[in-house]
Every structure is written in structure tokens, then in C-alpha cells.
């Protein structure tokens, strides 16, 4: 049908590679329990992990937040504030919006995102499938961008799908915040409705 | 003045509305008829049966949200009102599925376009799929009945610029365009139909049929997912449901059973086959879930010199059927051209980019216009649609392979949409495709589109119209229900929703669902009354 879709052998290879990766991640979790984790541990310098420490996160683990804190600046790009405090609060609000979105997806989609985060967080699959060489807390903007472009441009559907999953949830969480509407030149619901509609009076009160 | 807080007032007046999230113990209820789903099909059925004096219970998996909740907030709306928090997709993730999950079903979030079923489609059903009594003359009174009930009229307000560009472009190309009829009453022309209408202008089942049934003594139970129908011999005995918490996701542990003389399944395409598969109803020819159709949609976006503000104004008011029947009814698929509303989250989720590329598009958002093509799937021989199966957790999932004829129709549609946008003065046009840049002239675009890879996940596709999977027809070897939605094997089971279509339609489906549900419910009421 189309020359850019991988041939059956490569698909098969990829499927094995993916399952192998998830299995490797599982092995690492076990290693972690016995005290020799290869995963990064809590780093108090990462804004994502200090964000809203009392919040009851419904889906995202601390490690997921570390991964997204590394990727969000590349996903949001020039829209991300440069100044540290503004950046941290923008990041943490976006992570909260993402966590809510993950929760609302329900169990089947959550399972897929869980697999994806596991794959990104296990050192072996981070190195072999994501080809990101640093621990996430140390991943630079350039490394994050290169990773996103690799998965976006990959000839393997599964990486395209993972890329789209990551950026869609991120973009939706970012641009859905009224504070970021102006980055799209969107003025919000028509101004007069705030007076004319009872529910808008309540919402803005 | 709009009639605000419809449900608050109704409940004060004694409407029987049960929030299953609040159940403290398991319950068993009885009724004449239990209806599963409160969308176009279920809501209409409840209205007709309750008016006929039958004791009706409506069961809805989604929650009750109504005008006090509709604040034009995308995050809240998408996570509360749509299936899987608006992340439902086909099994290989190549087509995003927009589908409602709340009281009113997809009619609570739909874009109000209201078309009668095309005559070609009805004749095709009769001639090729063995559907009886579905010719345009027989159905005309049922369309008229619903058009009157839901105030369906051609939109006589000026289209917003987003729609106007489709009209301009078609006009310049010498192609067909027409104005869309909408199911609205005193519409404020705001443009937020997809987030729940904040003024109750939209005449979906949330503000029409469901309140009518409640006023006639029906019961509405929301936040209750129907897991299965227990059946014995040729009869369904009871339905079993699981209560979901106020987040719409978490299982509370409470369950309900409902016993009834008759059961109407109206969980729509994907949902209804899911219920029937879980229930293991007789299916000797393996038809349940087969031939599920989507009106698969591809899109182009244009950057216009002027301000478009695709977020304001009635979302759909102009359409073109220039290419709908381009190769005859059963030739390679034709498509209907329409326009989608765009708000920040919707746009950000549709455009497959990040970083600089996304910011560049965000900067031009107010000048962005978009056209969509809705492909007429299921009419030609290589378009067999998709198949619904159950995941390990018993939730339904759609496998939808994209056939070669659909791929070539997508390419055809990108070309024609880009041509329309350039004809209307676009500065640049881009197909919504991972490998497509913005092209600055029709010539460039034409060349570029011809070379775009036709591949899953490179092309960004979606559907807002799910149909089929419980096909109607008189031959049990080819269908699940007969021409009136009555199950071939279980005598007290009917299906009244978009899942009974044997093909897609070639027009937005809500009016077809309303009309068939109204007709089939009148027949059912007669049946139930005569053997009361
Ligand atoms: C964003 C959007 C825009 C649209 N725009 C238009 C338009 O402009 N014009 C048009 O004609 N059509 C439009 N549609 C499509 C149209 O609304 C649907 O085709 C129509 O509502 C289908 O009717 P239905 O009864 O089959 O299903 P729905 O209206 O979707 O109702 C099905 C209901 O069943 C419930 N349900 C499913 N499974 C279960 C279960 N196990 N237990 C309990 N409840 C269950 C669901 O939660 C849902 O509420 C649009 C749809 C969307 C999503
Ligand atoms: S345009 Fe606005 S007022 Fe009109 S039906 Fe849609 S949401 Fe309601």
C-alpha cells in the first residue's frame, strides 16, 4: 500500500522489542525493591517533584512528573516562561491538568500511558528505544527536542503513536489554561456572557 | 430569555432522577421498559414510551450535567462529557473517536447539524441490505415529526467566517454549497455546542426528550454502566449495572438490577455491540460488532489574511455535497464537506506538532480556518468498516482498518479542500498530516498532497459519527435486528440507536437516529400496550 509503513518483519521485530523493553522495565522494578534501583530517585531540585507536594496525584507518579518536567519545555517551546519561578508554577499547573486528563481517560488508556512511562523510566528502554542517554532530571532541552523529533519522524507506528500521545496530552493541558489563551490569541468566551449567563457569573466569582 | 436550570426546577417538581454514584446499597428495580443510553436513540425512545403511559427507566453510564455546568470550559467539558475523556480512538490509534458519554449522549455535545437521511442511502439499504419500509416516502412523516419536535430549521443567521470561507471557496470553484438546518431554539450563536450548550438553545435530548419522559413519570438513573443483560430462552430477564463515582471513572462497588418486560439498548455504535457481546446474546452468524462505520474525517487548515475566529458563532452552517456521490452510490467513497469549530484545546490536540512548529500555528490561531471531509464508508465493496471486540476488562474497542479506497478518497479530499481554501483567499494551507508543511500556493499544495504518504498515524484522522455494529435487515444471517430494531433472537430486546445502520449515511446522523427511534418506539408502544 505505502512504502513508508514498515514491512511485516520489522513490525514483528518491533513488537518483540517493545515487549522485551517492558519486561526489562519489570525486572528493574524488582531490582529497585531489593535496593539496587537503576532509576533516578527523588531530586528536590526538580520543580515537578516539589510542585504541590500535598496533592493527591491520581495517575502520575513522581517519576512520570520528572519525565514530563524534562519534556514539557521542549513541547511547549518558546511559550514556556524563562524566569525560574514563573516556569516552575507553569510546569506544576500543567502537570496537574495532565494528571486530571489521565484520570478522566479511564483504565484502558491509562494502561497504555503506564506502559509508555515505564518504558521511558527504565534505563534500558530509555537508552535503547527512546535513545535518551541522560537520566531525565539531567536531560537538556536539546536532548528532549531530539527525542521528540525521533519519535515523531520514526517509520514505526508505535513511536508515532507514543509521540502523539505525549504531545496531545501536554498541548491540551497547556493551551486549555486561561493563562495561556493569549498565546493563541483566544480571548475566551464572549465577554458579554459573563453577565448574561448565570453559570458564568458563578464560574468567574 | 433562556430557561435556565431545567433539571434543578424539574427535580424540585418531582422528577425521579437517581445519581447512582450516591447509592449506599445495591438495588433492584422494575419497569415496563428499561432503556440503556439517553442519547438521540434512547432519549427519543423514552419520550415516546413514557407518553404512551408505560413505566420507563432510563439508564445512563455518563453523568447528569446541564446548563449550570456548561461554562464553555474545554477541560471540564471534554473530561466529563466525552467517552474516555475525549481520548477514545480505534485500536491502532489511527482514528480519534469523538463520542458523547453523559445524559443526552452525543446530542449534548454535537454541533447541531440536522439532515434527513439521503434518499440514495435509503434506497441502497432497501435494495442491498434487505431493510423494509425505509424508503424516503415512508420515513418522511417521521423526519417531519422530529423536525417539528426539535425545531429543526435552516439556519438563517449569517454564517461565521469559518463557514463563510467554505461557501466563498465553493462559489468561486462553481461547486455546490448549501445552508445547514440546525436543531436550535433561540440560539445565541455562541459557538460552544461541543462543550454543552450554555443557553439550552440546542434541542438535544438533554433538554427535550429526557425532560419530557421525566415529566411523564419516567425514572432517570445516571452514573450507572450497564454490564450485561441476563437472558433465558428467548427473553431478557434483567439488566445488571455497576455504579460509577462522581468522577465518572471510579467503580463505587454498588450494583443495580433492573427487571422489565422489554429492554431497549441505545448505547450507540461501539457501546451497544459492547453490551450485546458481554451479554453473550445469541449471535449464530457472528454479526454483532461487525460493519461499524465512522464517516472517517480528514482535514486541512488554512491561514487566512483576515480574522476568522473559528471559536465563535454557530459551529456548522454551510456544507457542500459536490463530491458526496462523485462515483455513484457504490463507487469509491465520496464525502461531505463541512467545517469544524476550533477552540484552543481542540486545535492543540488536532495539530500534530510541538515546540516552535506549534507556537507558530498558535500565533496565527485567530486567522485559522479549517475544512473537514466526512467519508461515506460502507457502500463500496472494499469498505467493510470496523469490528468491535471486548478488551480484557470487557470494555469495547473498535478495530478499523483503513481500506485502499478510503485512502485514495482522503487524498482526493485534501486536494479539493486546499483548492477551496486557496480560492477563498488563503495565504497558506496545510493538510492535517504529520508530513505536511504549510504550502503557499495551490500549485505547491497540489504537488505536495499528491506525494503525501497515505499511512496510519501520519495522516491525522477522526470521527464524530459512529454507526453500525448491530445492523438492521430482514436476513438474520446478515443483521442483528430486523427493520424495526427488534432483535432477531430475543423477543423482548430492541436496539434503537446509530448502531442499527447497515452502512454510514453520507450525512450527519442525529436526525436519522431520532426519526428511526421515534418510528420504532411507536410500534413498540403498540406492541407492549396490546399485550399488557
Ligand atoms: C463532537 C460531536 C459533534 C457532532 N455533531 C453532529 C452534528 O452536528 N449533527 C449530527 O447529526 N450528528 C452529530 N454528531 C453525532 C450525533 O450526535 C450522534 O450520531 C448521535 O447522537 C448518535 O445517537 P445514539 O443514540 O446512537 O448515541 P448517543 O447519542 O451517543 O447516546 C449513547 C449513550 O449511551 C450511553 N451508553 C453507552 N454504553 C452504555 C452502557 N453500557 N450503560 C449505560 N449507558 C451507556 C452513552 O454514555 C451515551 O450517553 C456529533 C457527535 C459528536 C461527538
Ligand atoms: S451556538 Fe451556542 S447558543 Fe447556539 S446551540 Fe450552540 S452552544 Fe447553544
Automatic annotation (TrEMBL), chain A:
It comes from the Bacteria. This is Gluconate 2-dehydrogenase subunit 3 family protein. Keywords: Membrane, Transmembrane, Transmembrane helix. It comes from Vreelandella halophila. The chain crosses the membrane at residues 12-33. The keyword Membrane applies. PROSITE patterns: TAT.
From TrEMBL, chain B:
Pfam families: GMC_oxred_C, GMC_oxred_N. SUPFAM superfamilies: FAD/NAD(P)-binding domain. The keyword Oxidoreductase applies. The keyword Flavoprotein applies. One of its GO terms (molecular function) is oxidoreductase activity, acting on CH-OH group of donors. Residues 79-297 form the Glucose-methanol-choline oxidoreductase N-terminal domain. Residues 383-517 form the Glucose-methanol-choline oxidoreductase C-terminal domain. InterPro entries: FAD/NAD-bd_sf, GMC_OxRdtase_N, GMC_OxRtase_C. Keywords: FAD, Flavoprotein, Oxidoreductase. Belongs to the GMC oxidoreductase family. This is GMC family oxidoreductase. It comes from Vreelandella halophila.
Amino acid at each position: 500500500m505505502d512504502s513508508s509503513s514498515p514491512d511485516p518483519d520489522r513490525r514483528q521485530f518491533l513488537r518483540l522489542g517493545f515487549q522485551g523493553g517492558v519486561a526489562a522495565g519489570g525486572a528493574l522494578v524488582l531490582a529497585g525493591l531489593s535496593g539496587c534501583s537503576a532509576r533516578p530517585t527523588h531530586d528536590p531540585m526538580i520543580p515537578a517533584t516539589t510542585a504541590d507536594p500535598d496533592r493527591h496525584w491520581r495517575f502520575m507518579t513522581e517519576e512520570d512528573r520528572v519525565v514530563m518536567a524534562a519534556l514539557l519545555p521542549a513541547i511547549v517551546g518558546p511559550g514556556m516562561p524563562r524566569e525560574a519561578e514563573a516556569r516552575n508554577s507553569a510546569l506544576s499547573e500543567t502537570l496537574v491538568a495532565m494528571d486530571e486528563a489521565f484520570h478522566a481517560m479511564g483504565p484502558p488508556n491509562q494502561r497504555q500511558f503506564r506502559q509508555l512511562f515505564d518504558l521511558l523510566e527504565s534505563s534500558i528502554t530509555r537508552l535503547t528505544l527512546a535513545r535518551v542517554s541522560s537520566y531525565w532530571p539531567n536531560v537538556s532541552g536539546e536532548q528532549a527536542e531530539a527525542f521528540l523529533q525521533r519519535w515523531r519522524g520514526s517509520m514505526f507506528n508505535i513511536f508515532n503513536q507514543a509521540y502523539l500521545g505525549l504531545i496531545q496530552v501536554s498541548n491540551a493541558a497547556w493551551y486549555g489554561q486561561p493563562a495561556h489563551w493569549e498565546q493563541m490569541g483566544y480571548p475566551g468566551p464572549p465577554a458579554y456572557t459573563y453577565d448574561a449567563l448565570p453559570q458564568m457569573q458563578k464560574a468567574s466569582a | 430569555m433562556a430557561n435556565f436550570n431545567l433539571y434543578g426546577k424539574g427535580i424540585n417538581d418531582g422528577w425521579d432522577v437517581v445519581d447512582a454514584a450516591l447509592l449506599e446499597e445495591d438495588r433492584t428495580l422494575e419497569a415496563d421498559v428499561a432503556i440503556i443510553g439517553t442519547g438521540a436513540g434512547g432519549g427519543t425512545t423514552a419520550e415516546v414510551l413514557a407518553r404512551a403511559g408505560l413505566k420507563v427507566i432510563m439508564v445512563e453510564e455518563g453523568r447528569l450535567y446541564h446548563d449550570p455546568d456548561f461554562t464553555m470550559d474545554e477541560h471540564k467539558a471534554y473530561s466529563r462529557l466525552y467517552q474516555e475523556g475525549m481520548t477514545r480512538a480505534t485500536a491502532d490509534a489511527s482514528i480519534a473517536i469523538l463520542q458523547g458519554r453523559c445524559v443526552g449522549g452525543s446530542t449534548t455535545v454535537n454541533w447541531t447539524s440536522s439532515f434527513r437521511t439521503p434518499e440514495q442511502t435509503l434506497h441502497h439499504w432497501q435494495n442491498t441490505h434487505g431493510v423494509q419500509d425505509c424508503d424516503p416516502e415512508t420515513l418522511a412523516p417521521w423526519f417531519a415529526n422530529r423536525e417539528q419536535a426539535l425545531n429543526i430549521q435552516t439556519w438563517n443567521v449569517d454564517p461565521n467566517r469559518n463557514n463563510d470561507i467554505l461557501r466563498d471557496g465553493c462559489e468561486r470553484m462553481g461547486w455546490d454549497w448549501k445552508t445547514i438546518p440546525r436543531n436550535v431554539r433561540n440560539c445565541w450563536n455562541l459557538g460552544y455546542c461541543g462543550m454543552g450548550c450554555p443557553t439550552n438553545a440546542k434541542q438535544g435530548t438533554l433538554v427535550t426528550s429526557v425532560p419530557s419522559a421525566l415529566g411523564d413519570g419516567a425514572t432517570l438513573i445516571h452514573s450507572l454502566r450497564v454490564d450485561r443483560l441476563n437472558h433465558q430462552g428467548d427473553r431478557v430477564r434483567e439488566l445488571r449495572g455497576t455504579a460509577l463515582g462522581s468522577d465518572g471513572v471510579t467503580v463505587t462497588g454498588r450494583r443495580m438490577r433492573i427487571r422489565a418486560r422489554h429492554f431497549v439498548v441505545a448505547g450507540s455504535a461501539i457501546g451497544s455491540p459492547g453490551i450485546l457481546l458481554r451479554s453473550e446474546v445469541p449471535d449464530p452468524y457472528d454479526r454483532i460488532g461487525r460493519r461499524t462505520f465512522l464517516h472517517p474525517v480528514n482535514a486541512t487548515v488554512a491561514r487566512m489574511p483576515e480574522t476568522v475566529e473559528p471559536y465563535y458563532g454557530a459551529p456548522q452552517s454551510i456544507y457542500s455535497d459536490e463530491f458526496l456521490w462523485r462515483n455513484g452510490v457504490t463507487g469509491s467513497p465520496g464525502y461531505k464537506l463541512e467545517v469544524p469549530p476550533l477552540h484552543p484545546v481542540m486545535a492543540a490536540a488536532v495539530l500534530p506538532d510541538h515546540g516552535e512548529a506549534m507556537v507558530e500555528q498558535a500565533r496565527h490561531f485567530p486567522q485559522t480556518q479549517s475544512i473537514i471531509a466526512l467519508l461515506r464508508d460502507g457502500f463500496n465493496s472494499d469498505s467493510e468498516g470496523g469490528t468491535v471486540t471486548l478488551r480484557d476488562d470487557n470494555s469495547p474497542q473498535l478495530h478499523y482498518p483503513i481500506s485502499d479506497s478510503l485512502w485514495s478518497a482522503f487524498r482526493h479530499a485534501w486536494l479539493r479542500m486546499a483548492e477551496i481554501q486557496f480560492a477563498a483567499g488563503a495565504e497558506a494551507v496545510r493538510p492535517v498530516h504529520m508530513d505536511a508543511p504549510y504550502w503557499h500556493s495551490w500549485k505547491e499544495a497540489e504537488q505536495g498532497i499528491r506525494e503525501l504518504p497515505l499511512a496510519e498515524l501520519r495522516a491525522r484522522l477522526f470521527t464524530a459519527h459512529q454507526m453500525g455494529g448491530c445492523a438492521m435487515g430482514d436476513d438474520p444471517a446478515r443483521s442483528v435486528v430486523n427493520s424495526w430494531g427488534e432483535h432477531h433472537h430475543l423477543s423482548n430486546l430492541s436496539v434503537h440507536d446509530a448502531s442499527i445502520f447497515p452502512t454510514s449515511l453520507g450525512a450527519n446522523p442525529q436526525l436519522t437516529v431520532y426519526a428511526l427511534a421515534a418510528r420504532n418506539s411507536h410500534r413498540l408502544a403498540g406492541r407492549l400496550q396490546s399485550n399488557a
